[in-house]
Amino acid sequence: MTLKNVIVSHPESGAVTVFAAVSDESVAEAVAGVGGCVSLDISGELRHRAGGAATMNSWVESMRACSPTRKSSLSKDNQLAWKLPSALEKLDEIIRASEGKKIVMFLDYDGTLSPIVDDPDRAFMSNSMRATVRKLATYFPTAIVSGRSRAKVYNFVRLAELYYAGSHGMDIKGPSKGSKYAKGEQTGVLFQPASEFLPMIDEVHKILSEKIKSFPGATVENNKFCASVHFRCVEEKEWGELAKEVGSVVKQYPKLRISQGRKVLEIRPIIKWDKGKALEFLLQSLGYANSNDVFPVYIGDDRTDEDAFKVLRERGQGSGILVTQTPKDTHASYSLQDPSEVMVFLRRLVEWRKMARRRQCRLRREIEQMKAK
Ligand SMILES: [Mg+2]
Known about the structure:
Number of domains: 2
Order of helices and strands: EEHEEHHHEHEHEEEHEEHEEHEHEEH
CATH class of the largest domain: Alpha Beta
Structural class: alpha/beta
Low-confidence stretches: 1-51, 69-81
Shape: elongated
Strand content: 15-25%
Distance between the termini: 85 Å
Largest sheet: 8 strands, mixed
Helix content: 25-40%
Bound molecules: magnesium ion
CATH architecture of the largest domain: 3-Layer(aba) Sandwich
Strand order of the largest sheet: 9-8-7-6-5-14-15-16
Number of strands: 16
Number of helices: 11
Radius of gyration: 22 Å
C-alpha cells in the first residue's frame, strides 16, 4: 500500500486540510465531496493528482469566491468568520503594540498599492500612492513583495530606496544605493533560490502562450521565476476549460506546481519558498532574525499573502493586514477595504512617526537645556 501526505483544498472557504501518510483509499475518502487535492509523496515532491478535474474545479470556485463582484456567495459560517477589525480604526492599537520596536513595512503590489484592473500590464500605481510609499520608506524599512517579476513591479513602483521581492519572493534585491537601515552591503541581488528553474519557466510560458490562444481574453505573463495565467478578461463560463488546459500543460512538469490567486493561476517551482519565507529572509537581512525588537507590518490582498500572515502569527510579531471587501478565512489580524484605504493607513502611520520623532527631539532639547542650567 502506498502512503502519501495529502493536501485537500476546500473550495468554499479556500482552506486546506493536510492528511499525513494516508493510503490511496483514504485519499479518495478525503477528497469526496470536498474539492480538489494535490498529493505530496513521502519523498516530499508535490504532484498534481492524476485526473485533477476536482482540483481545477476547486481553483475555479476559489477564483469566483475571490472575485470582488461576489460578495454574498459565502456560507453563513464564513460570514461569521468575518470579524477582522479595520486597521484604520485600530491604528492606535497597532501603534501601541509596536512601542519600543522597529516597524518594518511589507507591501504587496496588485490589489494593495494599485487597483486590480483588466489588463495586468496597466496596473499602474497613482502618483499620490507613490509619494506616500516614498515618505513611508524615509521612516521605516520598506519592501514590496509581489508575484510579479522584480523588474516589472519595479517599473510600476519606481522607488530605488525600497527592497523588492519579485516572483513571490524568489527574486530579492536591496535598495539601489544600499539601505540606511541595514548593516553591511545591501545592494544588488540578495537572494534567488530558484535560479535553476528559469529555463523551465520560460518553456512553460511559451507553451501556455500558444495553448491559451483559443481562450479570448486569456493572457500569460512571464514573471521570471514563475508564470501567471490571467483570467481577468476571460468569460467566466470558460474558466473551467482554461484551468483544465493549464493543468494539462503543468502536469508534464513534475517540478512545477500551480497555485491560485485573484483571477490568476500561478505556475511556480516546487521549492519551499513563498512570501512568508521572503519576509523572514528580509527581516534577517535587516538584522532582525531572532529579534524581539522588530514589528513587521505586512499588507496584502491575495491568497499568496497568507503565507506571510501565517509567519507573523507564528512569530507572534507584528500585524498582518488583509485588503479585502469580501469575507475570507485569513491569518491576518486586521483588514483594509481597498488601495485607497491602504494609502490613508500608510499616511497616518507616517504622520504618527513624524510627530513621535518631533516629540523626542523636543524632549531631548529640553533635557539638554536643563542640564546646561
Ligand atoms: Mg495582490
